[in-house]
Design brief:
Shape: globular
Radius of gyration: 18 Å
Largest sheet: 7 strands, mixed
CATH class: Alpha Beta
Number of helices: 9
Strand content: 25-35%
Helix content: 10-25%
Number of domains: 1
Strand order of the largest sheet: 9-10-11-12-13-14-15
Number of strands: 15
CATH topology: Metallo-beta-lactamase, Chain A
Oligomer: single chain
CATH architecture: 4-Layer Sandwich
């Protein structure tokens, strides 16, 4: 097995929304805001090369939305998924599986692209199976008013219409699924959105957890640092508490999807609770 961080692009969101009830005077120490109160964020995917499979975890915002839509999110880097894959010798056609942690636009927008020949939409990864779960799929396709702006049908309905949608079974008990069809374990969490999936990957003697939107950046590690976007913030806190406890016990290495400057991190138990320990680039840990 080999892992590759895949930079799909960077964007900005309102810092207050990203940190909920935490005062700006505190959160800006780790995530400084610009003049519009927006903070810099990544949309980092993870590529798993495992035998004949090439599994992509999340795929960024994509390119098919309007100029007006993108103007809301201040895209600010030259990264895109094609060039990032090419750095490792791959193309989008090589991807065999696309695992979507959840269906918010900044995580799955790149799954579907415009069909410039026939009009409409087509799958961006034409040779891939796409993976979600039935509970989250129903949640996204029948959105509540709070999340409706984040669930854009053009990002995922074409997946089902293509016949390439695959649904992962939920755990029979608890929130932990051992040995999913993609070869890694999955933690299911419900505070941010219903049945978000966090991959747990064993790699070179480490346990890597793709933290998605449970812990968006290194600045979100403290327990009460919960996003205003979360649909069930008190549940997020309980899920984070359980997750952080397990992270200390099992020495998890966090893989951040949304931190533009810190790819990996560890946590440590202190008298003030479980907090950020050290951060690393992927190459510092794995070469």
């Amino acid at each position: 097995m080999k892992l590759y961080p895949i930079e799909t692009g960077n964007f900005k969101l309102d810092g207050g929304a990203m940190f909920g009830t935490i005062p700006k005077s505190i959160w800006q120490k780790t995530n400084p805001a610009d003049g519009q109160n927006k903070i810099e964020l990544a949309m980092r995917a993870l590529l798993i090369e495992d035998g004949d499979r090439l599994i992509l975890i999340d795929c960024g915002i994509g390119k098919k939305q309007s100029e007006k839509f993108f103007s809301y999110y201040d895209l600010w880097s030259d990264y895109d998924i094609e060039t990032s894959l090419a750095l490792h010798g791959f193309t989008k056609d090589d991807i065999t599986d696309v695992f979507l942690t959840h269906l918010h636009f900044d995580h799955c927008g790149g799954a579907v692209q415009q069909d410039t020949i026939h009009g409409g939409y087509e799958l961006s990864f034409k040779n891939a199976k796409y993976w979600s779960n039935a509970s989250h799929w129903d949640w996204a396709t029948n959105p509540n008013p709070r999340e409706k702006a984040s669930f854009l049908p053009e990002n995922f309905v074409p997946i089902k219409e293509s016949g390439n949608l695959n649904l992962i079974d939920l755990p029979t008990s608890g929130n932990y699924l051992n040995n999913s069809p993609l070869g890694f374990d999955i933690i299911f969490v419900d505070g941010h959105t219903d049945k978000q999936m966090l991959p747990v990957i064993r790699y070179k003697g480490k346990t890597i957890v793709f933290t998605a939107d449970l812990i968006a950046t290194a600045g979100h590690v403290p327990l009460v640092y919960v996003m205003g976007y979360d649909t069930r913030p008190l549940l997020t806190m309980q899920e984070k508490s359980d997750f952080l406890e397990k992270a200390v016990q099992e020495e998890y290495l966090f893989f951040f999807e949304h931190d533009p400057y810190r790819e990996l991190a560890t946590v440590v138990r202190t008298e003030k609770g479980i907090l950020l320990d050290s951060t690393y680039s992927f190459t510092e840990v794995f070469g």
